[in-house]
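User: Need the bound-state model for copper (II) ion:
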Amino acid sequence: MEKQSNVFFIIGLVFITLFLIVGFEYYFNKENRIYDDVKESYMLKEVFTPQRDENFYLEKIERNNSKVLNLYFVAKKTYINLVEGNPTLLWTYNDTFPGPIIRARKGDVINVTIKNELDVNTTIHWHGMRVPNQMDGVPDITQKPIPPNGTFNYQFKVLDGGIYIYHPHYNTPEQIERGLYGGIVVDYDNDPYEYDRDILMILDDILLENNNQVADFYKTMHTTMMGRYGNVLLVNGKVNPTYYAKEGEVVRLRFINIANARTFYISLINRETNKKIPFLVIGEDISFSNKPYETTLLEVAPGQRYDVLVYLPDEGNYSFIYYSNQGYISISNLIANKSSSVDKVDSYSKNKNQYVYENEQDFQDLIANVDNAEIINIDLYAEMQGMMEMKWSINGRVYPDDTLFIPVDEGRYYILEMRNLNSVPHPMHLHGQRMLVLDGDGIYSFKDTVVIPPNGKLRTIFKAEGKGLWLFHCHILEHAQEGMISVIKVS
Ligand SMILES: [Cu+2]
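Assistant: Bound-state model below.
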């Protein structure tokens, strides 16, 4: 017996050694060399020439009635100036990067016809929106992919205020990285907040080679583990763009993170004093929070959105600083010009003390049903398949070869009890449903993307709605690509 276990031990050692050698080989491959070459030239060099961006200020929608928003999108290839030197060949909607902003009111109907002028299939998914199942844009689950030269019509009623994003769900890591995405901002019926300016902030990163073209999509141990990180940080498709406000103003900022894998950790600082300006978080993903809360470090994981207010007490230059383990860098600037009008600090403190009743009844309904809810256990795991292939799994099941279907009944309550058995976080995104995070501090908002921390746990509750198949997957796009997708079946 003892002799036999020694043999197994030695065979085990040999395998581990082989695994390490091949793993390192993978790790120090082409992508990492590109990354090292260009990170000096782009990412860590702060650009402070104010690059004015006029396109992402949001106007208030003044009408009271709902209407149909008819839009025509063409997905195609377009050259865009991202960084100094050659323009970058991106994939865009209507030649713009990011795609056109969709501004709507609760109750409006969004009617988008998309023509696919790419040479590959595509679809559009309306991330965070509660749409009829056949409008959800998931190829081979809710619709056939839209072939080259094909068209598709998406039509649905807007049910919730909030911040959303549209993007393909076909070969998602590549199509999003190449530029196919855009923001949707929906006004609430009752918005109690006072502010002077409203700016959309779509956060992304992109991996460019030295000729400024999007780097190939090779699969490596590193991209499988961590996801694809870019070497250029973008806000609204620009490197370090500048927005303008006035001293004493309250500015509303709508953050969206559409990076493949990068979580953005952001602070707003006054560049003269280095003092941090607090973010007053008033909403997340699909709804207002019932109570606003302040933070000086906003954490926005891939797929998440945050609705925040900031108060700029003094004139001068402010910067949004992104923190990574390589240091910190300005990703965008906010310049407060001198103003002769009155100090707005009172409206900020009034905002801070708001209590929002918009979703109170729905929140209370979910909380009251915690004890009757059925528990769905979700284990997030990485596993080896054969010698070298690593896959991501949910309850040991890998999409699409061995898909985990979770049957639920419409109108019933379910608790997702999620455990992360890895040392990397997973931002889990649930299509078509509204989740409430449990075990919190009494601050609620409806979420569709929640982070399960490394080796941690999280519980959410939702009331199943909308018959059909709804994906539940990691929004680190390479994790989803490598299997971390399951399907909630509502009947
Ligand atoms: Cu993940």
